[in-house]
C-alpha cells in the first residue's frame, strides 16, 4: 500500500486495469501511450477482479474462486509484471477466516485487497435487482477490518473497505457514516461503488469524503458510469480509478467472432486479419525458442 500512499502524497493519481491471467497482465505491463501533456501514460497497477477471474473459469461471480487459486494467479502475474496488484476479495468471507485470507494474499505479494460490506450470498453489485443482497452491520465489518489489520504479514498489505450503500439504496448518509467508521477501524482506503449510469452520486460522495477525511485514499470503479474520464474523477477527489473488467470483455467477442468465421467459411483464412500472426504468437513470450 505504501507505493500508492507515496504517490498520493506527491499529488499523483493511480489507474488500475483488470487482469485475469498472466497474458492479460502482460498487456497492462507493456501498454503505454503519450498523454495530452506529452508525457508517458501507463497503468499504475493491476486489479484482480472477482468477476473476470470467475468468468474465465466458467464460474458465476459468487465467491467460488478460492484463495489458493488467487494466490497462484498473483504468482503467475508477478512473473510477467512488476506492477502493484490489488485483489478483489468479495466479502472477505467469515470474520473467523479473514486473517488466513489476508496472510495468504500478503504472502503472495498483493499490494492491497478490497473487501465489500456485504454478507451472505454475494452476487455482483452491477445487477439491476439488489434485493437478495444484504449489507453487513457497521460493527461486524469494522471487526473484519480490525482482524485484517492485526494479521501479521511479511510486508504491509492495504485493506480497502468497499461501501455498497449507494448500490443497495441505503443513501449517502449511510455511506458517509460507514466511511468514517471503517477508517476509524483501520481501513487504508475506501471504495465507494455505484451502479448508476451517472457519476453524480459518487462525485457527491467524494466531495464530502475529501473534506471529512483528507489524504485517505478514495477509490472508484466506473464500470457503469464510464462516460466520465479518469482525470475528471481525480479532479473530484478520487485517488485511484479501477477499470475492472475490460480486458476480458474485449477478449470474449474477439474470440467468438473468430469461432463464427471459421465455421462460416469452413477455414480460418478469412479470420487472418482478426488474429495474431503465427510469427507473433511464437515470439510473444520471451524464451519460446533457444
Ligand atoms: C469486480 O471486478 O469483480 C468488481 C467490480 O467487483 S464490479 O464488477 O464493477 O462490481
Ligand atoms: Mg467483484
From TrEMBL:
<keyword id="KW-0413">Isomerase</keyword>
<comment type="similarity">
    <text>Belongs to the isocitrate lyase/PEP mutase superfamily. PEP mutase family.</text>
</comment>
<protein>
    <recommendedName>
        <fullName>phosphoenolpyruvate mutase</fullName>
        <ecNumber>5.4.2.9</ecNumber>
    </recommendedName>
</protein>
<keyword id="KW-0670">Pyruvate</keyword>
<dbReference type="InterPro" id="IPR039556">
    <property type="entry name" value="ICL/PEPM"/>
</dbReference>
<dbReference type="InterPro" id="IPR040442">
    <property type="entry name" value="Pyrv_kinase-like_dom_sf"/>
</dbReference>
<dbReference type="InterPro" id="IPR012698">
    <property type="entry name" value="PEnolPyrv_PMutase_core"/>
</dbReference>
<dbReference type="GO" id="GO:0050188">
    <property type="term" value="F:phosphoenolpyruvate mutase activity"/>
</dbReference>
<dbReference type="Pfam" id="PF13714">
    <property type="entry name" value="PEP_mutase"/>
</dbReference>
<dbReference type="InterPro" id="IPR015813">
    <property type="entry name" value="Pyrv/PenolPyrv_kinase-like_dom"/>
</dbReference>
Amino acid at each position: 500500500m505504501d507505493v500508492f500512499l507515496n504517490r498520493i502524497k506527491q499529488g499523483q493519481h493511480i489507474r488500475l486495469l483488470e487482469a485475469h491471467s498472466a497474458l492479460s497482465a502482460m498487456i497492462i505491463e507493456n501498454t503505454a501511450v503519450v498523454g495530452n501533456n506529452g508525457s508517458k501514460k501507463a497503468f499504475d497497477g493491476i486489479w484482480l477482479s472477482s468477476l473476470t477471474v470467475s468468468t474465465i473459469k466458467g464460474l458465476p461471480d459468487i465467491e467460488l474462486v478460492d484463495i489458493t487459486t488467487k494466490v497462484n494467479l498473483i504468482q503467475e502475474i508477478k512473473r510477467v509484471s512488476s506492477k502493484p496488484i490489488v485483489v478483489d476479495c468479495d466479502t472477505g468471507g467469515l470474520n473467523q477466516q479473514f486473517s488466513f485470507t489476508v496472510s495468504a494474499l500478503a504472502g503472495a505479494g498483493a499490494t492491497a485487497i478490497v473487501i465489500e460490506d456485504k454478507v451472505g450470498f454475494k452476487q455482483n453489485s452491477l445487477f439491476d435487482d439488489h434485493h437478495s443482497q444484504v449489507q453487513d452491520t457497521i460493527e461486524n465489518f469494522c471487526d473484519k477490518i480490525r482482524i485484517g489489520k492485526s494479521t501479521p504479514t511479511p510486508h504491509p498489505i492495504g485493506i480497502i473497505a468497499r461501501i455498497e450503500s449507494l448500490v443497495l439504496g441505503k443513501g449517502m448518509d449511510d455511506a458517509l457514516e460507514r466511511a468514517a467508521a471503517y477508517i476509524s477501524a483501520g481501513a487504508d482506503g475506501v471504495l465507494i461503488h455505484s451502479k448508476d449510469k451517472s457519476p453524480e452520486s459518487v462525485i457527491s460522495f467524494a466531495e464530502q469524503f475529501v473534506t471529512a477525511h483528507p489524504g485517505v485514499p478514495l477509490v472508484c470503479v466506473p464500470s457503469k458510469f464510464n462516460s466520465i474520464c479518469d482525470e475528471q474523477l481525480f479532479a473530484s477527489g478520487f485517488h485511484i480509478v479501477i477499470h475492472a473488467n475490460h480486458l476480458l470483455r474485449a477478449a470474449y467477442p474477439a474470440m467468438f467472432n473468430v469461432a463464427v468465421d471459421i465455421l462460416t467459411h469452413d477455414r480460418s483464412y478469412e479470420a487472418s486479419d482478426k488474429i495474431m500472426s503465427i510469427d507473433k504468437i511464437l515470439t510473444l513470450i520471451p524464451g519460446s525458442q533457444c
